[in-house]
């Protein structure tokens, strides 16, 4: 079983590498590359968010705001201050991490609906600040940002995001199969039982909130260098919800589930465009039916079915 | 030697005194039972000792250190662990993982080392898995090691909680109704496990309704009624105390 776990981890990463390596053979234009890169970005945020929601059992309806902080942090530091883009990204990530740390303690004392409300409020506040501080952020019109000089073409971006995604999956799996990861899952399982064997539950909730926020911030920064443009929508409520839906759809407490959830929900709308006015209707219907018939999300449900088939 | 000393402990819930001016001591290396009718405050007392509740007044001295108001995880670091009357299993993990969480304090918990999957973390986990397998064996659950806890029988889960608590290497272990809901055969198994735990030199504090078990294994018994101490003493002394008989039979 220990061996199985190990091989499942390496096997999963190998499959992911293979998909990333082979995919360009099927991508014929810039738009398709764009979608592939977008999938990568979303998947990395979802991997971080899944550590918080799926493993730690804490909901966040404000993670779009952390993506926004990374994006605007980078944009402002490079464009207004003339800083190096990579340095700006690191500073933005540190700032986001500190902000997440400061708000985590009061917020994570709350549970269930209250935690959802608090993170929702946090996201909305950050979003409002970005919208109204127009001298700094350009307000609702958004902001132009220079790209990374060494990322000459879209293909470069494809490989960079691919590498980041593989790294994120690997690191996330490492974390889950470590004492920290078990403590985190224990917090989800039973806080009181975790405490009596020495797990400082608050500390772990704060830790994973900060980690997931930093994941989001870094993706926000890369995203803005890639697209050369950022608007406040990135920090908005709908983006936050979209991210949570990806995690839940792919399967909570499954790192590969987060990747697959992000992949499907980023691509699906593109396939539904032919439906015109009915696009959103069908999209919602697909989500509903999946959650009704596969309530644990895609990956865990399918893995469960395969396990049953083995016996 | 005194391991735990409780002085004039009280807790109120909206005017109701669940524990009322209670004082007693627990000596190390003994099996100490707490009995009393339903609602006497036994579980509340456990929650006070283990830091789940903060007392309204009174003090708790553990290992010559004032620990009143300490959090559960701070007490765990000082060698105190417990099980729960209502199962508190990590149902999102396998049996062995549940026990491995118990060993949390004795493992390398560095964030970056874990994030980058350094060999020290993996070696620590391998070693931890072995010792936790021994603990599962100790409580008779070795065959369940890699089973999802969701599909384990109730009696096994009761013992899993004991294995998890033991993994934290406690000096004192508080067991809240370990035999509740078990059939006689399972109950005897638990009985054996508790004796073996005590033989390891761990001080056991037991809340239990199974009087046969309590009378048989306890070195010392504390009887609670309405949050107060009714009496305490050896099994023989308690059994023959008219107040105890009255409290139980409503005389």
TrEMBL record, chain A:
* Gene Ontology MF terms: branched-chain amino acid transmembrane transporter activity
Which UniProt keywords are present, listed alphabetically?
A: Cell membrane, Membrane, Transmembrane, Transmembrane helix
Cite the Pfam families for this sequence: BPD_transp_2 (PF02653)
Ranges annotated as spanning the membrane: 37-54, 61-80, 86-107, 114-132, 156-176, 206-226, 246-268, 280-306
What subcellular compartments does it reside in? Answer: Cell membrane
Per the record, GO CC terms?
plasma membrane
Task: Give the way it sits in the membrane.
Answer: Multi-pass membrane protein
Q: Under which name does UniProt file this protein?
A: ABC transporter permease
Which species is listed as the source?
Answer: Terasakiella brassicae
From TrEMBL, chain B:
Which GO-annotated molecular functions does the record name? ATP binding; ATP hydrolysis activity; L-isoleucine transmembrane transporter activity; L-phenylalanine transmembrane transporter activity; L-valine transmembrane transporter activity
UniProt domain ABC transporter: residue ranges: 4-251
Question: SUPFAM superfamilies this protein is in?
Answer: P-loop containing nucleoside triphosphate hydrolases (SSF52540)
Instruction: Please provide the Gene Ontology terms (biological process) for this protein.
Output: D-alanine transmembrane transport; L-alanine transport; L-isoleucine import across plasma membrane; L-valine import across plasma membrane
Q: Which UniProt keywords apply?
A: ATP-binding, Nucleotide-binding, Transport
- List GO terms (cellular component aspect): plasma membrane
Entry-linked InterPro entries: AAA+_ATPase, ABC_AA/LPS_Transport, ABC_transporter-like_ATP-bd, BCA_ABC_TP_C, P-loop_NTPase
Keyword Nucleotide-binding set for record: yes
Q: Which Pfam families match?
A: ABC_tran, BCA_ABC_TP_C
Gene3D superfamilies for this protein: P-loop containing nucleotide triphosphate hydrolases (3.40.50.300)
Query: Where in the sequence is the signal peptide annotated?
Result: none
What the entry lists under PANTHER family is as follows:
AMINO ACID ABC TRANSPORTER ATP-BINDING PROTEIN, CONSERVED COMPONENT OF ABC TRANSPORTER FOR NATURAL AMINO ACIDS-RELATED
Indicate what this protein is called per its UniProt record. Answer: ABC transporter ATP-binding protein
What is the source species?
Answer: Terasakiella brassicae
Q: Gene encoding this polypeptide?
A: livG
